[in-house]
Amino acid sequence: MEVIAYEEAQKIWRQAFRESTVTDLKLELEIHKKLVNIFQVGDYYYFIFNCQDPQFEFVSDTVETVLGYQSEEFTLPLALERIHPDDLPWFLSFEQSAVEFFKQLRPDQVPKYKLRYDFRIKKANGEYIRVLHQVIPIHVDASGLVLHTLCLHTVISHLKQEGKPVLSFIGLEDEPSYIDVNVQNVFSSKKEILSRREKEILSLLIAGHSSHQISEKLHISTHTVNTHRKNILAKTGLSTTSELVAKAVREGWV
């Protein structure tokens, strides 16, 4: 999924910025002034993103404090790989929505908006934390195409533990804001990841049946049931049956 996400993200950004004829990529806005507009209290790190040639051009040293990675090793591919699998489709959908939003603005409006959404990202020690991802254009060409952005990740795990990521466009300098934008998760998988038999077993697990009871109902061995259960956990990226049941009920898998 991470490789596919990286390829999809590249397509989004390259499609959005392919028409720019700007040759001078010197940053024209004061970064520290923009930081004041998006700063949030809490642990954070920030980076400069090159939109035309998708890559991080600078990453603050505080990424080591927050995530445990050295700034030079925290590249775009690594960052995408560390996003929680359930949040990765939302990330791609939000980026696509952001491209469409900024394209419909007048050139003078583009620097007056920041993009904001949240997602979970894995630290070097394997722990997931939730960050508030805020983006503001710091280099825009004459036609309004964004060439460089300043991105800030603030830890908000203590504020939000559950729920899907939320996208907002925040207007600065008296521009209107658009909060909790309704975005279709167009990058979610359309393929069923569980087989018919695995769904049968999952339904019975949700109903509270043990492996032995399931084997009797489906007329298969207990060993076969347990093998299916292990495969279901592996496919869904979950660790325990309780996590599996909770997520299956919440997201309507069966």
Percent helix, as a range, is 25-40%
Reported for the largest beta sheet, the result is: 6 strands, antiparallel
Mean pLDDT: 84
How many β strands by DSSP? 6
Distance between the termini: 22 Å
Model regions low in confidence, pLDDT < 50 over at least 5 residues:
none
Q: How large is the share of residues in beta strands? A: 15-25%
Strand order of the largest sheet: 2-1-5-4-3-6
Overall shape: elongated
The SSE order reads: HHEEHHHEEEEHHHH
Radius of gyration: 22 Å
Q: Count of DSSP helices?
A: 9
Structure, briefly:
With 254 residues, the chain is an alpha+beta fold.
Written overview of the protein:
- The protein has 254 residues and is of the alpha+beta class.
- The chain is built from 9 helices and 6 strands.
- It has helices spanning 2-17, 31-38, 62-67, 76-82, 88-103, 196-206, 211-218, 222-236, 241-251; strands spanning 44-50, 55-59, 113-122, 128-140, 146-155, 167-171.
- A 6-stranded antiparallel beta sheet has the order 2-1-5-4-3-6, with helices on both faces.
- A hairpin with a 4-residue loop joins strand 1 and strand 2 (55-59).
- Helix 1 (2-17) runs parallel beside helix 5.
- The chain is elongated, with a radius of gyration of 22 Å.
- The relative contact order is 0.13.
- The mean pLDDT is 84.
